Structure formats: structure tokens, C-alpha cells
Amino acid sequence: MSKKRTGVFVCHCGNNIAATVDVARVAQEMAGEESVVCAKDYVYMCSDPGQNAVIQAIKDNQLDSVVVSCCSPTLHEKTFRDNARAAGLNEFTCEIANIREQCAWVHKDRAKATEKAIKISRSAVRRVSGAKSLEPIGIGVTRRVLVIGGGIAGIQASLDLANAGLEVVLVEKQATLGGHMIQLSETFPTLDCSQCILSPKMVEVSRHPKIKLMTYSELQEVSGYVGNFKAKILKKPTYVDPEKCKICDDCSQVCPVVVPNQYDLNLTARRAIHIPYAQAIPASYTLDIKACLGLNPVVCGKCKDACEAQAINYDMQPETVVEDVGAIIVATGFDLYGQEKLGEFGQGKIEDVLDGLQFERLCSASGPTKGRILRPSDHTEPKDVVFIQCVGSRDPARHCAYCSKICCMYTAKHASLYKHHVPDGRAWVFYIDIRSGGKGYEEFVQRTMEEDEAIYLRGRVSTLYQQNGKIRVMGTDTLSGENVEIDADMVVLALAMQPSAGTAEAAKVLKIGRDKDGFLAEAHPKLKPVESVTVGVYLAGTAQGPKDIPETVSQASAAAAKAIILLSQDRLTHAPTVAQVRKSHCTGCEMCVDACPYEAIHLENGKAVVNDVLCEGCGTCSATCVRAAIEVKNATPMQMNQMIEAVLGF
Amino acid sequence: MSRQGDWNLNPMSETYEPKIVAFLCKWCSSAGSDLAGVSRIQYPANATPITVACSGSVSPQYVLSAFKKGADGVLVSGCHIGDCHYMEGNYHARRKLYLVKELLEFTGVEPERFRMSWVSAAEGAKFAQVVRDFVDDLRPLGSQDKMRNEPT
Amino acid sequence: MIRIEDIRTQARDILETGEVRAVIGWRRGSRGMAAEPVLISQPEEAESLVWDPTCFHNLSLNLVQERKRLARKGMASNKPLALVAKGCDARSVTVLLQENHFRREDVYVLGVSCEGSGVLDERKLARVLDGLTPDSAAYDGDDYVFQTEEGEKRLPAREVMADRCLECRSAYPRLNNAVFGEEKTRGLEAPFAALSRFEQNRGAERWDFWKRQFERCIRCFACRSVCPLCYCEECVVDSIRLEVTPETTADEKANRIRWIERSASRSDNFGYHMTRALHLAGRCIDCAECERVCPVHIPLRLLNNKLEREAREKFGYEPGASVDLPALVSSFRDDDPNEFIR
Q1: Among candidate residues A498, A515, A536, the one where a domain is terminated
Q2: Which residue has the higher pLDDT, A389 or A534?
Q3: Is beta strand A192-193 parallel, antiparallel or unpaired with respect to A186-187?
Q4: d(CA B14, CA B16)
Q5: What range defines the domain where residue A98 resides?
Q6: What would the pLDDT profile of B15-31 be if each residue is shown by its tens digit?
């Protein structure tokens, strides 16, 4: 290493530093360092004259590096690095020695504080003597965004992105947009119709020139990095050309195969060729190949014969497309906790024990009962309905430890809707406590209790079983301390929300973390709530954690905004202080690969290779490597060694 | 393992000024130390900070090296668990440096000489207290002669 | 009981069929009764292989050395290399695979479950035999049996067995292509018994002990040379030799960090042994070869054992248990010890 020509500039900060630290002595001591060619002190280094003095000194002394002993680098590191650059230096050879916050302000003894300031300054001098000139890493960007999931979160994010002028590829696994929201009847606390507010957005997506909608499609692989992802997407054949399909329903009339309709939570049946909902987008039928007797017209072929529009094409093949995108938004949503795991509530085997989504379908005008609340078993109107909250939630011993957040509100909505449908019925609600934070939420719950006269019982249900055509619910009212037995006609379980199966798959494909409950992990719990740990991958909706529709929409817009910010630049820049591998010493043991929080390291021909764009320079790899084969630029073990020496008075 | 009271204490202990190397992560502990400064919370000048990107970047070699070069105490301070700027660095630091701590103690080095703390950017007072406590604990031990280079 | 004929037959077979390039095993040595490592490549050489309680060596070292030898010659091996491996040795092969030093298909493990026979501790034996030099050693399922000039001599295993074998928790080589001997472990002493005994000492006593040890170390680096996991081309403590490759920068050549000097001062010895122990944390599988070959008898096993016990008890990490696990220090758990942190 050729010897550096370093300049040291010690700031008095008026009296802030100079009152406690003998700044002249610090400058004098630094002048004695081998690499230092000029050392000065000045009353306010950050003032215009101070800054100009630094620039002048750089030019006069042909400095190649600078140390400024002053306040915290959080305040003026940028100032002095900009100056260094203005004077023709590389800004990464400029370091700040913090002798104010970490020295002058916290000590009174002048001699001791001065000694410490010397050590701090000297360690910065030694650090820059090993510093290299570095240039920020520039990355080109693809100004397109992949949105995974076509529920309300994905729809909102896609519209925001597209309206900002970015191209969007929206991938949805099901045959239609809409996710769970399209299944809901009314939404709390305003009781506006879910389909009525969602359908226009679905239509907008389908018509938006900037949005490429890919339903019935699955994300298979993602490679690349921020600004430059390549996403491989499998488009499954629907066997129906959506351009030609007139949704006349002739095909399903002749289809001989009947299977449970998952869009109605299996409360109804559908044909192999079907349309999920009347409002489905794209407005087209889909042939469920798993249910179909076979595409060979010899076997069946009835639908194709029936289709006058000739929209049905048995020769449609699965198609894999690769999309280049610069950012990705994951909005893969939730599933309800499985009823089969609930022994005390009949394991999902009792017909009139429903989950919340099934009850939504019963209330929905487009649902299996055309909006009449009827028991699935005998189609009679239930007169006693028991709603049980926190089923599978808040039960760390057996189920999910977390609170699913929306169940208090939707149970209140269910009880209220039920009472509107069946005014002479009784709605019983078992709850642990009511969590109704949100605009108008508490008032809604109160209305449900007072105006709709839902009977709220504070306590848990221990078990339920079928008896004489009823469901006997055994519970406790912990307020009165009495056991409660209700012969219910119907029971509705407010099941825990859990990350959807697709969420786990997406996390795997995208290599982004999940939390202990399986929800997508945000990069920082407070300050980066919509960023994933992978730069350029953002999170929206219930895949990240339980939340209601307004929160989901907010988060989706936030994720879109983050992507827009990212892609508003022509080129991204990345700090060049990244890890580098000493190939001669690397044995390919992969310890750094495993330790890297950013998956920025991989092996190539048996040696570690760092992806500069993904590396954040934390240095965990360097401290993990037992072979001294990887180090962070400008924070090398060599520099650390010299800083330790400086601190200990060598 | 017995932890206290079985080392010979230095009779000069009250006046001894221990030399401490303090590795502070940039995002939390160094920021916490800045806050102590902004709040003018006074603490002894014995600990000289070396700011690193992340506690996870502190190699055991740095700790051993500091002792070899004559440190009386070494402090490594990072973000609280779950708050690491790099998500996981402090978990890695905790595991690796736990091993260092155990090994030092095992060979009979006074356990007070190596210390770790989690200090957030909002914990200026805590940072000052960590340093105060460390200095108080190190003073009675006197100079660290076990690992340092022998005088030549 | 393990029949050496079985091992020889298998070795001969795999050499004859060409399934492996060579077999690393033990043969009768030239020093007293002790066996010595041998690499055989001809089927007929299989006859020279032996198995007895003097098969101390962890032959995965020879595997590593053979790889280095080939690499130096610029040769690539297209066939696997076989080695005879005790339970402990097989675990070090596992670590080598875990660290990608070998691919599984490059190694053929002739596993020997020693069935609790363990290996001898020559120093214990010398003390007990008091000048008598045996010609051979065998294990009869209970005791060690020695042939000496004064006839047969039997000694209880407990008296002369190596400490790590007394404390062995699994003599069975889980990683193997073929295995000889039954899945049987004697465990005459609790795991980490010697370590626990040492830890009875108070801090100051421990320091007096280690101070003595570190003052005695002559830095011959035998511990490092014999360790199959010290396979780095350049050790962090070496400041005189640097592997220079086209990628080596001028900086690297000119500036070496001398974390630890090569001279045998107490502080440098301390630094060396601490660094070695830390670098082996979660990797050392307690073959105790370092301790066996130390010419000044430093009980190095204690240092490695200490960290192995911490790994197991505090981190639930078992060195050499699985090829697919990340390393001890490149992984973590939420409930890692935290109470030591302020």
C-alpha cells in the first residue's frame, strides 16, 4: 500500500469540543502520524470558511484522504465527504472521528478527554490509511413491477403502480381476481357490499393498458436482484378463450361432472367447466382439468359441442413466460385455520358448524342461498346461532399464539347481519375480550350488542356436539361464573387467519423470510413495515400479518409507493462498501453463505462470490469466516487491527 | 463454575484506570452513545469507541487482539435482539461472542473483562451506565496481564 | 467382534472392482506395537491392513492430505478414495463434507464401529506397564490383552483407554458405505467427564493451570498438522507464508495482519490456542489427535471439549451430526443464551 497523504481537521465546535478537549494538542498529535501531512484545528469546521479551508488544504497538500475530528458522523459525514469529492478526492477516503458526542460532551476531565479524543482521531487516521477509493455501484432498472396475488391487496397495488405509469404484471393463482374479499357479503363497520366496492376495481385492472393480468397462473422461479428480476410464470390452460367466451353458461349446462365449489367454500357444487362468480374477471369460463372426464372428445366433449362461440379449445397448452421486472410486491393473502385441527369443535365434520367465510357466503346475495341465512343441513332458518371468537387464535399451547385481529369485528358484523336477516333469532357470541380499535369499530360492536341485541358471553366454549338435530354448545360465562349450554341451530367459528399456502411457496421462490407464524417477515418491524428483507421485494396485505381491508389497502398503496420510489430512478446506486472474497483463501465451506442475512453470497466453482448489489456490508460474513477469506471493503480486518492498536496507545 | 471472589485483586484498585476498547454498532449502540452525548450524561473516559457496521462483524479475533494489545476490558455493544439493522447480525454476534466469553472464563481470565450489551439508539442513559459499570468492575482487577504481550 | 478379514475382503473387493482409487487404513507399524496409517492401491495389499486398539489415527487427515497432494500436482481424481473410519473419524468426514471439502461421492467410508473397544492411551499404558513393552494389543470385548516378553498381560479397559473413548457417546459411524461391528457403545464415563472434573477448579486455579500450559507450548504446530479440520492453505497465525496466486494483491503481499506471532511467548501461545479452539467450535468432533501428538502434553482436548459442550447444551448443536446442517457459527436460534448480555 502506498503511503497515504492524510489531512486531519480538528473542530472546536465553538466551545462544544474545545472547552473539554485540547483541540490544538489533538491536531499536534495527529501531525506526528506517519501518514498525516497536514493537521489543523478550526473553530467551526462545518461553517463555510471551515469547509473551504478543508478544500483548500486538500488542494494545497495534494491530500488523498481526510479525517475530520468533530461531531457524530450522522451530522456531517455527508458534508465532508461531499467536500472531499468537490476537491477531487474519493469520498470513501474521508472519515469522521466523533470527538463531540462520544467524548467532549460526556467527560469533564480535560486531560482524560483530550487523551480519548487523540485515540479516537488516531484510530480514524489509521482507518483511512487503509481505505481505498470506491465508486458507488450503479444498477440499471427495469421499470415494471410483478404483483403476486390478485386479492384486494394485489389489485390496489397494481392500480396504484399502473396509474403512476409503471407497467404491472399481476399474477393470480385462481381463475379470477378478487381473492377472499370477493367472497364477503358486507364489510364492517359500514356494511357496504363487498362485491359492489371491489368489482369496479377488478374491472379497472382488467381494462388498464399498463396492467398485464395473468390469472390461473403461478410464479415458479425468480432470479436476479433489485431492479433486475426475472420471474418465470406458469400460465395454466383454462381451455376457454376469454376473448370468445360469452359467459352464456351453455357449456356448464351440459357438463356431466359435479364437484364441490371452492368459491362458495364447498357450500354449493359446480361443474368441471365453470365460472367462479358472476362478476369474475376475466369474465370467462374455466375448464377444471382435474375434474373433467378428459379432453378427448371421444370421452365427453359435450361442452365443446355446446359452445356456439367456439371458445373452447381442448388443445390449449400450459405456457411458461418469463417477465423482466424491477420490483416485486407479494400479496398472497391468507387462509383460514383448518377446522380439522379443532377436535372440540367437531373437526369440520358437523355440517352446521361453519367458518366465517362460509357464513359470508350464506349472507351474500350472490351466495348459495341467495342471501337467505339457512342451515346447510336442512335449509331451515336457524333461530339460535352461536358465534365463537378466537378459534385457533391466542392459544399458544395448541394453535396459533397470535391474535387474528379481524375476528372481533367480523363476528360482530355476522351477529348483526344475522339479526337483520332473522329478527326473531338469537345471536350468541362467545368472546375472550373485544378488540375494536379502528374508526367506528367500537361503536359498531356496541350497536351490535345494544340495537341488534346480540348476546355477548365472555368465556370460552369447551366443546360442542350434535344432539337431536341441534348442536349443543358447552361453554362458560366467566362474568357470571356460570356454565352455559346452548342448543344451537348453527355455529359460526371465527377461525384464525393464517398465511395462505401460496405465501409459503412465494417466500421460498423469492427467498424472503417468514416469521415464527409463517407470515412474511418485514425488513424492520417499525421502520420498514412493507419492505421484505430482499431489496426490491415488498409486502402487502394479510400475507404479512392479520389485518382488515382498510389496513390491507393502505399497506398495498404503501408497497406500491415504495416500488414507485425505487423505479423512479434510471439507475439505482448501491454503497460500494460491500464484502469481497480473497479467492486464494476461500475453501468454499459456505459458512459465509449461511451467515449472510441477504443471501448475497453463493458458491461458484467452489469459491464464494458476493453479489455486490445484494450485499449491505454488515460484515457478518467476515467475522464468521475462519479462513480470513472475506472482508468488507474499507472495514477490513487490517484496518480494524490498526484501529485497535490506535485505541490502545500504539 | 465459581464466578467471583477467587482472583487476586489489585491493591491499587481504587485508582487504576482500565483501558477499554468498545466496539459499537453504527445503528444502535453508537447512536445511543451519541444520545448520551447530546443529553450530556457524564461517564468515565476509559472506553474508547470503535464504530463498526454491525456487532455481527466483530470477529472473535478482534476481541482477542485487543486483549493481546493490552486492553483491560473489551465491550461489544449492538442493537437489541430483533432490532438489528441487518436483521440477524446481532444473533450471530451473540452466539460467537458467547463462545469467546466462555472460553476466556474457562482458561481463568476474569469474566468481568469481556462484556456485551444491547444498547438502542434511544438508550443514551443505558450506554453511560454500561460504561460506568464496566469501569467499576474492572478497576479492582487492575491491569490485565494474562493475555497481553509480555514486556520485552 | 470385528473381524479384520472382513475389512480386508471389502477393501480388496472395492480395489479389484475399481470402485475406489485407494484405501486408507492402518497397517502394522514400525514403532513397537502401534499401528500406522497406510494408503493402498493394490488389491493384494489389503492383507496388510490391521484393526486393533492402537489404531489411534483419525484417517480423515490422510484423506485431506491426499486431496492436497493431488491438488499440488494439478491432478483431479475421478474415483473415490476409501478410508477406514471409527465412529469419531466418520464424524470428521461428515464435517469435511458439510464444509464442501469433499463431495460425498468422492469418499468411500469403511466404517468401523469399535463397539466400545476404543483406542489406547499410550501414556496411561506406559505408566501401568512400567517399562514393559508389549508387542501387540487386542481387545477381547472386555479387557485389553497385551503380548509382552513376559507373556500375556490383561488390563481393564478403564485403566488404559484414551479419555475420549471412555467418554464416547457413539462409537457407530453413521456416515458409511459399509460398516463393520455392531452399534454398541460402552460409555465407561459420562460425556465430558474430564472437562467437568477440570471445571471444579476455581478461576484463579484454572488460570494457574493454563498459564503453565501456555508457557510450555513450543509452537511446533503438531496439533494443527494432525487436525483433519485444519486444512486451510494458510493459517491465520502464519505470518511468514502466504499463498500467492494471480489474485493476490500487492497489498496482501506487503501487509499481513499479525494477529498472533509465531514466536512461542505465553501471550502468543494463548492467542494461538484460543483462536484454534474458536475456529474448531462446532467442527471439532473430539478425535483428540491434537492432544495425543502434543510433545509437551498440553491437554488440548479440554479446550475443544469446552466449546463442544457449549455447542450441545446451549445451542443444541452436535458437531459432525449432519452433512446438511449449517455450521455452528453461521447459524443461530432465537433462544440462544442472552442473559450474559447487559
Answers
A1: A498
A2: A389
A3: antiparallel
A4: 6
A5: 6-134
A6: 899 999 999 999 999 99
